[in-house]
């Protein structure tokens, strides 16, 4: 009987992953269901992150998520955008918080103008499709594709 209860719990847990993951669930997974090690990159001659994602994150890969965070422009061209768990003063570059606290955003073309109007550290809500990355050194470990702007929270 215990075995059936464990199987039922497992099936119900997997079923919830099929739904759109919300902000609290997503940040919890991003911060707690990954192990990041740094390895030397011959290409870049620097130590770069290599992520090992947990089972829950792997199950969420490719799923639609909604997430809130602090908007950060990623470059001077205005085409690279990052969402952070913390404002820029506490970003992982400055405080050593870790690569798992930021998300690369690939914005839908028809949504681009909305993002170009934002200011650094605007707290926003977005939705898109999660893509985990542990192979491409030119991108972050968390990527959200087809990003749509939901709202500016503050």
Identify the notable features of this structure and list them briefly.
alpha+beta, DUF3299 domain-containing protein, disordered N terminus, OB fold (Dihydrolipoamide Acetyltransferase, E2P), 7 strands, five-stranded mixed barrel, 154 residues, two-stranded antiparallel sheet
Describe this structure in words.
The protein has helices spanning 2-17, 23-32, 55-60, 92-95, 112-116; strands at 34-41, 46-53, 64-73, 81-84, 102-107, 123-132, 142-152. It is an alpha+beta fold. The protein has a single domain (20-152), classed as Nucleic acid-binding proteins (OB fold (Dihydrolipoamide Acetyltransferase, E2P)), CATH 2.40.50. Mean pLDDT is 84; it is low at 1-17.
Broad CATH class: Mainly Beta
Rg from alpha-carbon coordinates: 17 Å
Summed up, the domain count is 1
How many DSSP H or I helices?
5
Give the overall form: globular
Q: Major sheet: order of its strands?
A: 3-4-5-7-6
Number of strands: 7
CATH-assigned homologous superfamily? Nucleic acid-binding proteins
Order of helices and strands: HHEEHEEHEHEE
CATH fold label = OB fold (Dihydrolipoamide Acetyltransferase, E2P)
Uncertain residue ranges: 1-17
- The CATH architecture can be named as Beta Barrel
Protein name: DUF3299 domain-containing protein
